[in-house]
Amino acid sequence: MRFRWPGQTEDLLSIDDLRLSAGEHLFVRGASGSGKTTLLNMLAGVHAPTSGVVRLLGTDLAELSTSRRDQFRADHIGVIFQQFNLLPYLSTLENVTLACSFSDRKKARASENADPTATARELLKALNLGEPLHDAAVNKLSVGQQQRVAVARALIGGPEILIADEPTSALDANNRNRFMDLLFREAEAQNCTLIFVSHDPQLADRFDRTIELRTVDDDELGMVS
């Protein structure tokens, strides 16, 4: 798959073949400008490839309209953003259940054993955020607490694919390790395929597989495993 902006002559990303098994945990690393964010945006259906195919869960994303790609992402993918992208005017609990507002599928899955609010509370407790924080304004939480809210929002409704974009960049080593333990525990509990981008090479050993995006041959972008 390849991606370039209209009018550009050089690819921002060029990957001949990348296949993931259900439940696999993939670590993606690379220098700034190597195409990490472009790759995540293509996997999330934000961008369609200039050429080639991006197929997730048997669906060719390029065959979907922009609105249908957005719905596919809402139904099947959870995203943990580097800056968390929480809504400051919503409570902790409201930020988590917001994901169900955009997807009837996630809402139904979050309601299998309880209503989405109760499911959100259980997720937050599993991530070591107790009930006193559930109704707090999310902008009153610490960075580490906000990060766990972002994880709970990404996991609610049982997405098959979890994408994490540099989520540990603001954490010290101890908090980073605790966060990774929580993330892996919850991803494995839901059998999510995890795609995790980071500059931190110390995290790579925790993953099933690592790929590195790099610039080669006069800025042509490539991938090495």
Beta strand count: 10
Q: What class do helices, strands and sheet pairing give?
A: alpha/beta
CATH homologous superfamily designation: P-loop containing nucleotide triphosphate hydrolases
Q: Mean pLDDT, as a whole number?
A: 88
Secondary-structure arrangement, i.e. CATH architecture: 3-Layer(aba) Sandwich
- Main sheet makeup: 6 strands, mixed
Return the CATH topology. Answer: Rossmann fold
Instruction: Identify the CATH class.
Output: Alpha Beta
Strand content: 15-25%
Describe the structure concisely.
The protein is an alpha/beta fold. 34% of the residues lie in helices and 18% in strands. The strands form three sheets. A six-stranded mixed beta sheet has the order 6-7-8-3-9-10. A two-stranded antiparallel ribbon has the order 1-2.
Describe this structure as you would to a colleague.
The protein has helices spanning 36-43, 66-76, 92-101, 104-110, 116-126, 143-155, 173-189, and strands spanning 2-3, 13-14, 25-30, 55-56, 59-60, 77-80, 161-165, 193-197, 209-216, 220-224. The strands form three sheets. The protein has a six-stranded mixed beta sheet. Helix 3 crosses helix 5 (116-126), helix 3 runs parallel beside helix 6 and helix 6 runs parallel beside helix 7. It is an alpha/beta fold and 225 residues long. The protein has seven helices and ten strands. The relative contact order is 0.20. The protein is globular and about 55 Å long. Helices cover 34% and strands 18% of the residues. It has a single domain (2-224), classed as 3-Layer(aba) Sandwich (Rossmann fold), CATH 3.40.50.300.
